[in-house]
Design brief:
Length: 116
């Protein structure tokens, strides 16, 4: 029973995270500056992948209640789901957000004399 709880939570999380990453590119929430935004193409691909894996894993989990042979495949799909989530996490942390500074650095307002 505990296995099924973690199984379904994982795949529902993949669905929600996939819709978030795909939707953030089209309609950003405005919580991050534009300089650290996601690459739209890569984010859309990750979103589609996460949603697909999430729906497929959820459907397989539900079909496992009808068929013992499908239920036997659940541990392998749980491992695949954890693997996809780990790869997505690595992408977000290491590759996903790279600052692209547009402007120039501000000039110091010192002009060679000290202000008291």
């Amino acid at each position: 029973m505990l296995f099924l709880v973690f199984y379904f939570i994982l795949f529902i999380t993949l669905i929600f995270q996939g819709t978030h990453i795909a939707g953030e590119v089209k309609t950003p929430l405005g919580t991050l500056p534009e300089e650290v935004g996601q690459n739209p193409v890569a984010a859309a691909r990750w979103g589609i992948l996460l949603i697909t894996v999430g729906f497929f894993g959820s459907a397989l989990g539900l079909l496992g209640f009808r068929s013992a042979s499908v239920a036997a495949m659940r541990p392998a799909f749980l491992a695949a789901g954890v693997g996809v989530l780990a790869l997505y996490g690595l992408w977000v942390v290491l590759l996903g957000r790279k600052p692209e500074f547009i402007g120039k650095a501000a000039v110091a307002d010192d002009h060679g004399h000290a202000h008291h």
